[in-house]
Amino acid sequence: MERADRDLAFMLQYENVAWYENGKVRILDRRVYPSNVKFEVCTSYTEVAIAIRDMVTQSAGPYLAARMGMALAAFECKDKGKEEQHSFLRKAAYELSHARPTTAARMEAFTEKCYQVAINALEDGKRTDQAVFEHALEEINSKYLRIGKVAKYLVDLFPQRGTVLTQCFGETIVGQMLKEIGEQGKEYKIICAETRPYFQGARLTASVAYDQGFDVTVITDNMPAFAMKQGMVDVFTSAADAISCDGHIVNKVGTMQIALACKYFGIPYYVTGEPDKKHKIIDSVEIELRDEKYVLEAMGVQTTKKGVKGWYPAFDITPPKLCEGIVTSKGVYLPYEINRFFDE
Fold it and tell me: How many CB atoms lie under 10 A from the CB of residue 124?
């Protein structure tokens, strides 16, 4: 297999996202990267689910982590009877996919495939954990290749030179977008909104851009509108944690306010991702409310007086009218027409 993570940044290499080997899953702890390169080592699938829930890995990282968690689950139950293995793996698939509620619809599809791979291997007398691991590797490689197509469609929309503003950490699309900019010979600088409270933009997106040789600047989350007014931004792009079939974008909280500023200043906003069949309308998406303490601190340091309250919705919803286009592996769609994705 020719690996599609070639020439991408350190944290986008498969082994540094999530990796199963010898009854353990190793996950790069993105909560402390890049100041501390630390891996969380999980010896049970429940520990993988906890790592996903606790944001050890974020963006698209949980999708690979959940698959590797299924390989670990297969290892854990390998000495049980067939029926017990079926039950154990079914439970693991559910718990891993529901570690974070907002992305459960997508995660279910991935863990269900892993479950079927494990059951087929069991029936064929093969090592179930190895079968699921190989499936996970093939799937992530296929995804990287597919995201490479998305990146080409996205960069085709960019002018020859300029500055692109990002929000949060779009995982593979960030690395592939930067790689595609270079392959198309375009000249771009990168601005990353810091993305409170975990600072994914500052720590992760900026690190990937820097590792891949780009001029990158970090701004705080309350600066994008002023940066646009100063003429510092030519295009805004983000990934999406969910896209409903009626064209709404669910992404890291703060995305909507940047999209609003883009609309005011006439700057295009392109989102990358694919619609979720399970979310026919936006009302079916559950916005995850996380622990308020993360709003009351910055990287573990308390910033408010004791007794002050916090509120932390992990995502917000950008309406279709604020998005110029949804960029998919099949091409670019207007948000109101994203349902056509399933017809083509």
Answer: 9
Closest CA to 277 of 242, 315, 318, 308: 242
pLDDT digits (tens, 9 = 90+) for 96-115: 999 998 888 889 999 999 99
Name the token pair of 39: 């891996």
CA distance linking residue 303 with residue 321, whole number of Å:
36
Confirm if 286 and 313 have CB atoms less than 8 A apart: no
* Residue 301 identity: V
Rounded distance between C-alpha atoms, residue 201 and residue 254, angstroms: 12
Q: Cα–chain-centroid distance for residue 287?
A: 16
Using CA of residue 329, residue 335, residue 337, residue 339, what is the dihedral sign? positive
> Coil, strand, or helix at residue 90?
helix
- Cα–Cα dist 241/255, whole Å: 11
Report pLDDT digits (tens) over 228-268: 999 999 999 999 999 999 999 999 999 999 999 999 999 99
Length of the chain measured in residues: 344
* 8-state DSSP, 202: I
Determine how many CB atoms are found less than 10 A away from the CB of residue 63.
25
Q: Is the pLDDT of residue 156 over 90?
A: yes
pTM comes to: 0.85
Strands (DSSP E) along the chain, which ranges? 18-21, 24-28, 39-42, 161-166, 187-193, 216-219, 235-238, 242-243, 249-252, 269-272, 297-298, 301-302, 315-318, 325-328, 331-333
